[in-house]
């Protein structure tokens, strides 16, 4: 153990959470203003677009969003005619989500704006810094997942 007192502003778990929340709130406002879509709906729409077809369970695993949030987002996107569902032939209890033509159109309009927004947020960093950040975040993900698997949170 260390004798150094906990300082939240330099405590990495807090910094990650704070920064993620700050970025997410900013991006959510933009998506809502531009396309009347929230972050959960955007994440579901994006994973469906990237995957072609995907189950809600797989989206939960890839986004770390809970089942209720993913389900509500899928219901909202279905109601807007942006995604469709079909029974999963590999698992009769689940459905595969796929973009409709309108969903593909919306994704094609949002994706470039999302990338441009990301560029504006990260403009002060060079490519090497950004690549390093992404690599470090992936390493943190792997470390936490490894700790979860071994049950060593205590």
Give an overview of the whole structure:
The chain has helices spanning 12-35, 39-51, 56-63, 67-79, 101-121, 127-150, and strands at 83-87, 95-99. The chain has 154 residues and is mainly alpha-helical. The chain has a single domain, classed as Orthogonal Bundle (Arc Repressor Mutant, subunit A), CATH 1.10.10.10. A hairpin with a 7-residue loop joins strand 1 and strand 2 (95-99). Helix 1 packs across helix 5 (101-121), helix 2 (39-51) packs across helix 3 (56-63) and helix 3 crosses helix 4. Residues 1-142 form the HTH marR-type domain. Keywords: DNA-binding, Transcription, Transcription regulation.
Give a short summary of the structure.
The chain contains six helices and two strands. With 154 residues, it is mainly alpha-helical.
């Amino acid at each position: 153990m260390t004798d150094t007192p906990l300082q939240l502003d330099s405590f990495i778990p807090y910094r990650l959470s704070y920064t993620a929340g700050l970025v997410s709130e900013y991006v959510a406002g933009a998506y809502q203003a531009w396309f009347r879509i929230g972050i959960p709906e955007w994440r579901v729409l994006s994973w469906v677009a990237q995957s072609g077809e995907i189950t809600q369970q797989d989206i939960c695993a890839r986004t770390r969003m809970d089942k209720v949030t993913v389900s509500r987002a899928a219901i909202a996107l279905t109601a807007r005619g942006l995604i469709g569902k079909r029974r999963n032939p590999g698992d009769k209890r689940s459905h595969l989500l796929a973009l409709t033509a309108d969903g593909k159109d919306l994704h094609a309009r949002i994706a470039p704006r999302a990338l441009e927004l990301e560029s504006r947020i990260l403009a002060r960093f060079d490519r090497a810094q950004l690549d390093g950040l992404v690599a470090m975040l992936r390493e943190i993900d792997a470390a936490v997942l490894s700790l979860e698997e071994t049950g060593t949170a205590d």
